[in-house]
Design brief:
Layout: E1 10-15, H1 21-30, E2 41-47, H2 55-58, H3 61-72, E3 75-77, H4 80-84, E4 89-92, H5 100-109, E5 113-116, H6 124-137, E6 141-143, H7 151-157, E7 164-171, H8 181-184, H9 187-197, E8 201-208, E9 214-220, E10 224-230, E11 235-240, E12 243-246, H10 254-266, H11 273-290
Parallel strand pairs: 1-2, 1-4, 2-3, 4-5, 5-6, 7-10
Antiparallel strand pairs: 7-11, 8-9, 9-10, 11-12
Helix pairs in contact: 1-3, 5-6, 6-11, 7-9, 9-11
Length: about 290
């Protein structure tokens, strides 16, 4: 089914109910009285999912499933195929990136426009395969962390300080044993870094501070430098041809949700496949540097 940009309500299906994002996003989309409500769509269907070998998934999936059913009236389906038959667009929310490829494979086969929450997949190889499948099937696909859409970060992205010559961003970087180190939580700061630096990273070196915090330094084309630093909060600074500005703040989920719904309506991904691929290559290269 082709979605018209003028469609009154886009029916959304969610896959993977093991993250707080499913409740936060559904509230923003489905509740007209919610702060920052994004109109034009409704979450109507979901597939439970869950990963038994990740505690933060297994311990939360039943609770979030119950909330979606009881508070928002979302129908739970036993298979992704059944879910896809009921909706025009899909949000893969599984907190575990490893099943994303197989989940995306089924969504793409059904021809449904697709947003994948962070991390897009459990490996760079899987990220590449998702984009390959999507391109082959002509299905629009998009993935992003909410940190991409911080107000100050977007201002720099859109030229507030001219061409960015260097930037440093910081975020927590909790590690999950089944994922490359930065995929689990460091991705937030890395996403903000790529938002302001753009494409063109050519080399990556990983080190640690005296306190054991992760530091990843990338050299971009034109000898521009981008640094990710593990920290307790979300922050950063970018220096450009016209001055410098703070970047990397977390401004809530609403700006990301608004971009996702706009994407579902227009079918135009707001972030290129190439930039997302470079982001994941940067994070995997950090692991290679560590080794």
């Amino acid at each position: 089914m082709v979605i018209s940009a003028k469609a009154e309500v886009i029916r959304i299906g969610m896959i993977g109910l093991d993250t707080s994002h499913v409740v936060a996003f559904t509230e923003t989309i489905n509740n007209p009285k919610a702060k920052g409500h994004v109109p034009g769509a409704k979450v109507i269907a979901a597939f439970k999912g869950g990963s038994p070998d990740i505690k933060s998934s297994a311990s939360r999936v039943d609770g979030y499933t119950k909330t979606l059913q009881e508070k928002y009236g979302v129908e739970i389906y036993d298979t992704i195929e059944e879910l896809c038959a009921k909706v025009e667009a899909v949000m893969i929310e599984s907190v575990d990136g490893r099943p994303h490829l197989e989940q995306a494979r089924k969504v793409i086969a059904a021809g449904k426009i697709l947003y994948l929450d962070k991390p897009m997949a459990g490996s760079l190889k899987d990220v590449l395969e998702i984009f390959r499948l999507a391109e082959e099937a002509k299905v629009p696909v998009f993935s992003s962390s909410s940190l991409r859409y911080g107000k100050a970060t977007q201002a720099v992205r859109n030229g507030a300080i001219g061409k960015v010559l260097s930037a440093q961003t910081s975020s927590p970087a909790k590690i999950e044993e089944h994922h490359p180190d930065l995929f689990w939580y460091g991705i937030h700061g890395c996403e903000a870094l790529f938002t302001v630096m753009g494409r063109g990273c050519e080399s990556v070196v990983r080190s640690t501070t005296e306190e054991g915090e992760i530091v990843v330094t990338g050299i971009w084309k034109g000898n521009r430098t981008g640094i990710f630093l593990e920290g307790k909060g979300y922050s950063g600074i970018a220096k450009g041809e016209k001055g410098e500005a703070k970047v990397g703040s977390f401004d809530g989920y609403q700006p990301l949700v608004a971009e996702v719904i706009k994407f579902f309506k227009t079918r135009k991904p707001p972030v290129s496949a190439g930039e997302t691929i470079e982001l994941f290559a940067f994070m995997e290269a950090a692991d290679e540097s560590k080794r």
